[in-house]
Amino acid sequence: MSTPAAVTGPAAAGTDRIGLLLAGSPARRRAGALAASATFGRRAMLKIKHDPKQLVDSVAIPILITVLFTYLFGGAISGSPGEYLEVLLPGTLSMSIAIVTMYGGARLAKDVTTGAFDRFRSLPTWRGALVFGGLLSDAARYLFASAIVVVLGLVMGYRPDGGAGGVLAAVALVVAFGLSLSLLWAAVALLVPDPAVVISIANVVLMPLSFASNIFVQPSTMPGWLQAFVEVNPLSHVATAARGLMNDAGGTGASVVWALVATAAITAVCAPLALHLYSRRG
Amino acid sequence: MSKSSTAGDQPAIEAHGLVKVFGQNRALDGIDLTVRRGQVFGFLGPNGAGKTTTIRVLATLTRFDSGVARVLGHDVISERDAIRARVAVTGQFAALDEDLTGYENLIILGRLHGLSRAAGKQRADDLLAAFDLTHAGGRPVGGYSGGMRRRLDIAAGLIVTPDLLFLDEPTTGLDPRSRNQVWELVRRIAAAGTTVLLTTQYLEEADQLAEQIAVIDQGRIVAEGTSAQLKSRVGSGTLHVRLLDGEQRAQAQQVLAGALEGTVHPAADPLALSMLLATPADATDVGRLVGHALTRLAEAQVGIAEVALGQPSLDEAFLALTGHPAGPATTDQEDVNR
């Protein structure tokens, strides 16, 4: 039963080339941090290409949130759709992007548990490349989701006074904030490498951020303690800043600053934390 | 390709007293290991014996609790990146991206090895061709057969020729034809000068490929030597006899025990007997011994349906080397305790 059968067929011919192949090896070089990150970004994009289902969340959630909440809360605000979209659309943009950030964390959690992760780790590349490369594909995903929200708004009758420049500035701000959240979920994913757990934790954080905010309801109608939370909720500031930029309303400079400070603060904590947790895993 | 900057005379792997504890379980319980450069070294043991953990430690993927290990002259803890630049890991745990194509897998890994776009493409094409995978290069790996996947896995380890290649159970689960293809690949890689450390559960595989074999059991190395040295301790092979009539088994057992040195084991099959043969001084004697035994059985009027002479199984080798069967490893703790 243990007769070593002769190796026949194309494989036998192929193996003749192995020696040549090994002798003709390309030179070893350490991939730069940027090149390695870009490669992981490309890998994530290729995965989307092969399995476009991965994008369903990033498409469906912005549509649901924008359409549903616009008509749900629109009636409570006086005026035409064009008028209440001025208040709501920058909010649903901020909320949509915040919610879809969690899928990046889930993807990293899944990556970390596969054997592919071990192979990546066995290469002498910069440790942050997998995490930061993931951010590149996340950024593309957030831009895509933002485009959906903006186009839907235009279809429903929103005419931003801030023009294309204002809208782009708002989208840039919202995506930047989303990327800081991505780093938070990356840290969570490296701590608990289980996609379901990452999604649960992200939901617990994102629900109050989304609803205990000024996105749908004027804080003046809320009890004092809730108003206090809304005041410090970074998503409130992001939504206010986006409103100001898209509608070209004055007096939102402070919110833009606060949104940027929140983005910088989350990044400053979570980026080194994610790197540390990644290194700890190997 | 082994014009490495560090001294070439050092062993490829030198480890002393490696201990790794997962909770209650001592996965590695004092492993000492020396692998010469250019050698194919076989690490033989059952599931959960500590083979994968040893590779993970030596490939800088798992930290250990005590001991020292140097790989290609570099310390496993303080010179991790220097080791990572010169070794490749393939097998059980170092897997591929299932949803990407074979070609894309190689391209991505090529870029991570620092190859330019053009060099990466060229290398991917060359590797696919040499591993007979050109036709499958454009398909997602998830749809590959076991043999194709294993070949791509090994190809992925050769994007930049490593000085040391870890192969973790390279043929587990493969059909005989694919297994032979992988064996041939391993021989070619070794012939080209790369040191290979391979783990296996199959005595035959270690025998076929490895110049030096260490037998590992419960986190300890219980025997080490060349294939011939181990065989002289284990025995040259196993004689399997299947009778026509189960009633005659006790009689056959007696006859065999008298004719040959060794213990006769009744097999699970009520018609079968197996016997581990002691190694005779020269290999041609095996035929004479077996012939003698069969003659004795025929003289005793024992009807025989089948006779086979095989290599000792891992179980038999373990029994001979350790005095206890390889046995069901508690669980596959190496996987559980990642």
From TrEMBL, chain A:
Annotated membrane-spanning segments are 55-77, 89-109, 130-155, 167-190, 197-217, 256-278
- Output the Gene Ontology cellular-component terms: ATP-binding cassette (ABC) transporter complex
Please report the record's description of how this protein sits within the membrane.
Multi-pass membrane protein
Name of a matching Pfam family: ABC2_membrane
Keywords, sorted A to Z: Antibiotic resistance, Cell membrane, Membrane, Transmembrane, Transmembrane helix, Transport
Q: Which residues form the ABC transmembrane type-2 domain?
A: 53-281
The molecular function GO annotations come to: ABC-type transporter activity
Xref: InterPro entries: ABC2_TM, ABC2_TM_bact-type, ABC_2_transport, Nod_factor_ABC_transporter
Compartments (UniProt record): Cell membrane; Membrane
An example GO biological process term is: response to antibiotic
Main localization (coarse): membrane
Does the keyword Cell membrane belong to this entry? yes
Question: Which PANTHER family does the record associate with it?
Answer: NODULATION PROTEIN J
Q: Which family does it belong to?
A: Belongs to the ABC-2 integral membrane protein family.
The name this protein carries in UniProt is Transport permease protein
